[in-house]
Specification:
The protein is an alpha/beta fold.
Length: about 375
């Protein structure tokens, strides 16, 4: 294995809450409920046949605007989408709002409940929300060009949602700091020699990191968590923080972040995956919101992101007809990546909460401000 798209790269290249669901249920009219029910059963029809240029012209005729709510850790992770999409479609007024997925999803729920919807597209880590929103009839069923080539676990059969890119989480290390003692697997993270030299994102603040830590416990036992808790780990919010701490030499090891196995030999850090040991990967889902104002521009975005040109910009693709670079197999062919396990984990919210609270007992409560800042109810409006 030699490369995985980092979370930052996926974003850069294009890459129910009580208030939301409760209010929705309280305010929905019979007509709305009927529309929701019928919408969840509707078919998207055949794949898109219009070219990107034809969709571009149609999007301009629609008004030439597009708002995307994108899951991420810092605003700059949206710069790649802003730059690359705008270079290809310069007359589209594009807004990309980056925030933790767990805030974007309840933000959208509240906008549904208050009839103040802002985004046209959501691309989030909270995979369970897409199933829920489909059942509520909130998502536009649509099959972009190339939809039939997507890995089956990365798409809804009716086109309600689909994955636009692959993200993987594991551990990393600073080359100079570890020398000849580079960790060979996550088991080495509990070696006492690394005490005080580890950075990690909180597993009970990010569901993907939570799943990674769950896999470690499932594989190594609770003793691994107990010993990791004695390592004087510097926990922080934002899954970008471990990699940042390692690459800048602040810490020797990082846990719960993304990276690339194709980093140049001169890179100060390495992101690692150990054969036979767990890591986690998933397809970052995206959907067009049915109530969005700019559905044609949203269709343009999905077609652009799933195009061959965009899907070959990194090592991994969500498409089955694109060969990964570096001699890799498709990510879904690596059992220790647990690609199909993460959506199942995310769907069981009671289980997720139990794991969160248990890790809080081991590692302490989450502290610190959200790294994207506090964006409020209607960013991008």
């Amino acid at each position: 294995m030699s490369s995985f798209l980092s979370r930052r790269r996926v974003l850069a290249t294009g890459a129910g809450a009580a208030l939301g669901v409760g209010a929705l249920g309280a305010t929905a009219t019979p007509a709305t409920a009927a529309a929701s029910s019928s919408g969840s059963r509707s078919d998207a029809g055949p794949e898109e046949t219009r070219t990107l240029d034809e969709l571009y012209e149609a999007a301009l005729a629609e008004g030439g605007k597009l708002v995307i709510y994108s899951g991420g850790d810092v605003d700059s992770q949206g710069n790649g989408i802003r730059t690359n999409f705008s270079a290809r479609f310069p007359e589209i007024d594009l807004k990309v709002v980056v925030d933790y997925s767990k805030y974007h999803d309840v933000r959208v729920d509240n906008q549904f409940a208050t009839d103040t919807l802002v985004p046209d597209v959501v691309q989030l880590q909270t995979l369970h929300d897409f199933t829920r929103w489909k059942e509520q009839g909130r998502l536009l069923h649509y099959r972009p060009a190339g939809f039939s080539k997507l890995y089956k676990g990365f798409k809804d059969p009716q086109g309600a949602w689909m994955a636009l890119g692959v993200i993987a989480f594991s551990y990393s290390y600073n080359v100079a700091a570890v020398g000849a003692d580079a960790p060979k697997s996550p088991l080495d993270l509990i070696d006492p020699k690394w005490k005080g030299q580890i950075a990690s994102s909180y597993p009970h603040d990010d569901d993907a990191v939570l799943y990674l830590f769950k896999l470690y416990v499932d594989h190594y036992g609770w003793d691994w968590a107990a010993r990791f808790a004695t390592q004087d780990v510097r926990f922080a919010r934002g899954s970008h923080t471990p990699g940042l701490a390692v690459s800048t030499g602040q810490k020797a090891l990082g846990v719960g972040g993304s990276g690339s196995l194709l980093a140049p030999s001169t890179a100060p850090s390495r992101w690692a995956v150990a054969e036979g040991h767990p890591f986690m990967a998933w397809g970052q889902r995206a959907a067009i919101l049915k109530q969005g104002r700019n559905t044609t521009a949203a269709k343009l975005f999905l077609n652009w992101r799933l195009s061959t040109a965009q899907q070959t910009t990194g090592a991994w693709s969500v498409r089955t007809d694109i060969t990964p670079t570096g001699g890799l197999k498709p990510i879904w062919e690596y059992p220790n990546a647990n690609v199909d396990g993460f959506p199942r984990f995310m769907a069981d919210r009671a289980q997720v909460e139990r794991w969160k609270q248990t890790f809080a007992l081991y590692f302490g409560e989450v502290k610190g401000d959200p790294t994207p800042g506090s964006l409020g109810l209607h960013p991008g409006a």
